[in-house]
Amino acid sequence: MQVIISIYSIKAMRVFVFGMVSIMTPVYLSILGFSPFYVGLSLAAIVSGNILSNILLTWFNRIVGTKTIILSFSFLMFVSGLIFFFANSLAAILVAAFIGNISVTGTEAGPFQSVETAIIPNYIGEAKAGRAYGVYNVIGYASSSIGALASSIPSYFNNSLESFRLLYLIYGIVGLTMLSIYSTFKLTNPQKQDAKGSPLPILEKRVIRDITKLSVLFFTDAFGGGFVTQSILSYWFYFVYHASLSSLGLIFLVANVITAISTLVAPLIAEKIGNLRTMVYTHLISNIFLVSIPIAGSFALAVSFLFMRQSMSQMDVPTRQAFMIQVFNREERVVANAVTNTSRSVANLFGGPTTGLLLSTGYAIIPIIIGGLVKIVYDIAVYSAYRRRVR
């Protein structure tokens, strides 16, 4: 139980700074004088770093061990925070974004979550894993909401560069704290490599088929999601409605509180109708609200649709994590999580630069519409693929 408490504590700290950094980074770059395209490029650098991290987790988990991997990534968070604190050139910021494993979504698809969601059932039992994931995610979104509010701090200091940099330093310190806590974990790995020396476990054809299928499906979802990450949505409101950083902090505080409540309710709904149905039904409705945001016509109505979207959009997160338990066995989960999260991160790669380019050319309505419609396609596809397979 002590490990579970530690995981929850790490999740809270990590997503707090992710929620903070994901909102303030686009604004920070704008204040430094960079165009929307370069803002999008920095978000692509963040996503690229998450892709590489999950690939390294997949390939080297069985060689150097899970613990060594997450300790290394925690240290890189610390280094990233220091670079953000001392530098203001685009090249340095892109390096910091790339190595920091920052989340741009308010939730996560990076290596830390891949490991934590894989090991939670080992300590809590598979029967209780659904509710454990609900708590895990509600802690994450509650922390992200506080981080969103904290992102508004520079606005009270006339958006001074020093105020931004201080928050990046806090982000780095959290990485160092994670390093300390993770070092107390006793994580064991199965056989480190197979008889042929491969770093990957030998997987059954069924498992490879499921990983491939889900990677394609999750890629589709995340491709749409790449146009509507928390970073992009905050920048969209800043660009289209000239919302202040203090307003954005308050908006995403409320949005993440709503999301946190919904993720706590999701496992309870799933116990009645199943993980897959909960994933799809709630996600589908939320995407209808999503495509309504850019055509709302006013700032207040657009924010209202954002809140309605957030009331359901992340109910699929804990239920998807529980769904993965239904599909994969214990020894398959770290690889399955890492590979499918990698596909999600790869898909997210295109959203930032494309949105930045569209905003620069005056097509502000297009990114969110694309995101919502693609995610609806995913909802229909994943339900069709697994509705006869899992409850």
Question: What would you say this structure looks like, in words?
Answer:
This protein is an all-alpha fold. The protein has a single domain, classed as Up-down Bundle (Growth Hormone, Chain: A), CATH 1.20.1250. It has 16 helices and no strands. The chain has helices at residues 2-31, 36-64, 66-86, 90-99, 111-124, 129-150, 161-182, 205-225, 230-240, 245-273, 275-292, 299-310, 316-327, 333-348, 351-360, 366-386. α2 packs antiparallel against α14 and α10 (245-273) packs antiparallel against α11. The longest helix has 30 residues, at 2-31. Mean pLDDT is 86; it is low at 190-197.
- Which class of secondary structure composition applies to the elements? mainly alpha
* Sheet with the most strands, sense and barrel status: none
CATH-scheme architecture:
Up-down Bundle
Number of domains: 1
